[in-house]
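Input set for joint prediction.
Command: fold jointly, output tokens.
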Amino acid sequence: MERTMIAELSQCIDQTVKISGWLQVLRDQKSMQFLILRDRTGLVQVAHWKKGNPELAELISTLGTESALTVTGKVVENPSVKLGGLEIQLETLAVENAAEAPLPFELTGDVLPNVDFRMDWRYLDLRRPEPLLVFKVQTTLEKAAREFWLQNGFMEIHSPKIMGTPSESGAELFELKYFDGKAYLAQSPQFYKQMGMAAGFDRVFEIGPVFRADPSFTSRHMTEFTGLDFEMAWINDHHDVMDMIERWLQYIYQAVKDEHGEAIKELLGVDLVVPSLPFPRIPMLEAIQIVKEMGYDLPEGKTKDLDPGGERTIAQHVKEKFNHDFVFVTDWPITARPFYHMRKPEDPSLTRSFDLLANGLEICTGAQREHRRAMLERQALEMGLTTEPIAYYLDFFRYGCPPHGGMGMGLSRLLMVLLGLPNIREAVYLFRGPNRLNP
RNA sequence: GGGGGCGUGGUGUAGCGGCUAACAUGCGGCCCUGUCAAGGCCGAGAUCGCGGGUUCGAACCCCGUCGCUCCCGCCA
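tokens >
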């Protein structure tokens, strides 16, 4: 017999079906047993008259919750059953894998253990409907992201994660042994995306792992995460990149809302709002003024960009003034940006760059890149870099590289914002941080 | 790297100088004509993170240490 998913049972009234899932609750009474079974699609009640099969009844009595079971039985309508008005009258039951009792924690309890404990037992934690929904949403999100990119002329690339030379600053790089020498884990596909521009691919994207050796202990940092990156050629300036991002995000939000809007509201209490276009864009200097006028004191030394408190303040301003959850903070000073961001021709102390804040959280950084080799080299030297380690990168710009720009976004940060999750650990399958390497 | 908060049965909490350390939930047993957040009764389960100190007396105060967590720095 084929397995039936629980969500489809209402179409199987009076049929005998096979259901596989986990025993969420067992109500073991004098004459009857009720088993609440859960699969990826929902819950169903299975009823068993003990008299009909005393041997089976005895077996059921020994079952621990969360045991993996396969049952067969007839689906019957029963209005008095609060769970969907139907139940399965048990015929056979196979214990595929009994669960030890007690469980490390109660999956359906009113209160949850702290995040760290749940990370130790992540596979049990993931059985709960909320985490399950997070990853259903992630799947839809990635599908929509790809769809949009493919519809808009982007090609998917997969760049190497093992690198021979530290790119960019090198400060947050994981070093590893590589045969007799050493190598580094990529902390961004940045240079390789840009190589795609030099290669004439026009538009590329990558969804892949990114490694940061940052000893950061916050609710929004990880040492390994999935980056959503794209790069596009023949642009006029960074506004072309922002135009693309906001259309792309709108498309993603719409897809997630269509597919999961109701479940998100029900389980997470979030009413997903598809963002309107265009997103507000505020130059950094203006943002600093606004934040000051709102009475927020930037910390000493923060005269050229915003700290997280400032970011939350500007987000609040945007929410009040434009009723928008997103804001691009643009035209960052060169001191706060890497050497490859293009400078503004009319003010070389500023860059053609932006960060995207979503509900005050930084989820994305982008810019037009400097594609003129001489200029790029000069900027690298100015920022105190030596050109030798980036020689390969600089070479990309020797034989006809078009003007281009792009962005990088953290997948889990986007999920956090989308679903209103308080901690990035809830938005990632398995968390990696300075003190977390297992499971 | 800097700072704050928290470590008490499996889990979540209460207790904050003088108790046999309390409650909820889970777990085990018994009872219950169909339960459905099931219910009722009984029971097991904690040397209060670890080490030192103060005190007649420490889960409680002090110091150290470890773990977790959040904020800042940095970033996605």
